[in-house]
Amino acid sequence: xxxxxxxxxxxxxxxxxxxxxxxxxxxxxxxxxxxxxxxxxxxxxxxxxxxxxxxxxxxxxxxxxxxxxxxxxxxxxxxxxxxxxxxxxxxxxxxxxxxxxxxxxxxxxxxxxxxxxxxxxxxxxxxxxxxxxxxxxxxxxxxxxxxxxxxxxxxxxxxxxxxxxxxxxxxxxxxxxxxxxxxxxxxxxxxxxxxxxxxxxxxxxxxxxxxxxxxxxxxxxxxxxxxxxxxxxxxxxxxxxxxxxxxxxxxxxxxxxxxxxxxxxxxxxxxxxxxxxxxxxxxxxxxxxxxxxxxxxxxxxxxxxxxxxxxxxxxxxxxxxxxxxxxxxxxxxxxxxxxxxxxxxxxxxxxxxxxxxxxxxxxxxxxxxxxxxxxxxxxxxxxxxxxxxxxxxxxxxxxxxxxxxxxxxxxxxxxxxxxxxxxxxxxxxxxxxxxxxxxxxxxxxxxxxxxxxxxxxxxxxxxxxxxxxxxxxxxxxxxxxxxxxxxxxxxxxxxxxxxxxxxxxxxxxxxxxxxxxxxxxxxxxxxxxxxxxxxxxxxxxxxxxxxxxxxxxxxxxxxxxxxxxxxxxxxxxxxxxxxxxxxxxxxxxxxxxxxxxxxxxxxxxxxxxxxxxxxxxxxxxxxxxxxxxxxxxxxxxxxxxxxxxxxxxxxxxxxxxxxxxxxxxxxxxxxxxxxxxxxxxxxxxxxxxxxxxxxxxxxxxxxxxxxxxxxxxxxxxxxxxxxxxxxxxxxxxxxxxxxxxxxxxxxxxxxxxxxxxxxxxxxxxxxxxxxxxxxxxxxxxxxxxxxxxxxxxxxxxxxxxxxxxxxxxxxxxxxxxxxxxxxxxxxxxxxxxxxxxxxxxxxxxxxxxxxxxxxxxxxxxxxxxxxxxxxxxxxxxxxxxxxx
Length: 884
What we know:
By secondary structure, the chain is mainly alpha-helical. Among the domains are: 29-221, Rossmann fold; 312-398; 408-584, no CATH class; 587-651, no CATH class; 823-884, no CATH class. It contains 37 helices and four strands. The chain has a four-stranded parallel sheet. The protein starts with a helix and ends with a helix.
């Protein structure tokens, strides 16, 4: 029991470490600016600017009063404006220092037109995203996911970076105290896009954020006059409209709320006499002490009350447009709404113009493409929550839950219809016909429990879901819909349950087929998404029918294991493999430490598959080949090399036949079997045949990598590593060195792109390179190479000792040899002592595998002891080696 607990704790620790390594590597791709943060030496002198600084700190810590109706809906922004030399920057450095001491500083960025990187906003939001990721692990997870899904984000335009790296990762974040983002000297790196983000989008950050800005005076920062000027120019009201008196009243009424000014100006556009309407609105007697929320609510109510609520058609169209904008998780354009509702046009142009102050996408020019969104989060809160509690506005209230149900019905109806009507794509996940590998390309071209929705959902799962899976994958996106399966299983009646189960089985099978397609296209993250889904579905199916589904559940775990390994998440892969072995005990048991049991179980599995293969070779050839491969590996790990050789040769024969019959599908599977064959032949002393096998594998991988470098370059590097050793065994040392140098060069490039996935391979290839350099008489280079490799390997072992100790042992052995070659025997002695200790700890786990290694190391150890005149100890170690 204690051992099991320790194993579980170790696995959890390994998983957490691997995740942290992968996440750190991803976050390191964010471009940041050195020296752009706050500087303690630039802060105010003690006891200066106290009133201003205390006012700013009070704003940062301000919370709603006890009679406030709700929390603020978004981030609050303060802009400190002053002329050059007024001391803005020293105030900001002081505020940043105090916030940092109070653990409230989320990020700070100080623009400077004279400093490269700080004279442009290009790296502002990637720097802020990096700072936020260090502050909160949930934000870090979301930023990591965003970068993994879109690798161009670290160098994307600032508008994209703000949304994907700052705004969306921060949604729903829970912080104990307000978090402050400081941006100083906007005028030093002025950019209209940045102004737009700070003016119109930054307030959509959660209310826990405070954004403190400074700038010299610029016309654009006089926001109210600027918006009024734009309005006057657009509708030809004259340069001095609406006059100084009305402008001052407008600024006073706005109370510093950008959104109030924007909404007001958009509202005035629809009036024939905007001056009279503005005068009327500004003459109201609203209390001057209104909160920001109350000011916005009053303006929203004024606009909505002005609509013609006696017009039934307007009411219906309002509910369609406003309700869809509120309920849609992904905003859609007016043409998309017309498609969804089956109504063209969806409403009159007049109605769209009247809704322009509240919704985007209403403008005639932008209507075909611009998504319809609520202009601000505060409007959503007003319509969904505060509107409902206001008796005089109850009839205008939008019920989000009702709209969710209506949209779900519409979505499923149109999706089923479209997938059934349009032959968008060949059915490549369910067809038995030979298909080209990969995924065909397409030409671009919470639920309520209503009975109608239930019926549509079941029908869609039964007849349209696999087509949907194929279509979304071909469009470039894969989604995990396990939640929908769970929802359906808990809601449908007994009659529909059987149909759901049948659909689930077919969909799970399609997921396994899709994983192979995604792997072919090197879409690793999506492959893991689909593998997780397959595991979840087959886990449920195996509970009801273990005999029928345990093997496919094991296959889905194997796919999950492979996906994790391709992403470099080796500890998660280990856990998937452990779970796989519970369902299919023979499958790769050697990889989880059960080397003695693996051949027995794999042999039993082979006995089950051989009759099937004999009766239907075409149908079972691929699976039988996999069984042979697993059995051969398990025999090899126990030192039963002759039996392993026979099994490998049979498997290679099958793989070769498949590759000849269907080269596009099976050539990529044939190449790794040649790798295994070469290794077995070499261990049997058949070096000429081993070289021929690996040369054939390298030639295949070069051809595959030319067409699809991302997918097959790593396999080419592995084969080159093996080729180097085979060439060395044949005495062709110069060619052996060239092959391993090419492999190292590839792995160094791959490690830069995906460190978690390829660093272990780089370590092994550096070890091989050290040997080949030594063979060429380049001893100093050989030593430097293995020292680099050991350094990297120690880092890996510190994170995951179980996974990387064998590699560390291999590298330490090589380091000891290189030190000995240069007569540095005392240095070699300490390395060999560490190595012996390590091998002794590994020996009990796999005695047959490590016996030869331990014996060789002990003899090297004995020789080093003799070299430093420790003859008695050398004799004792030599005796231990003889016993092995």
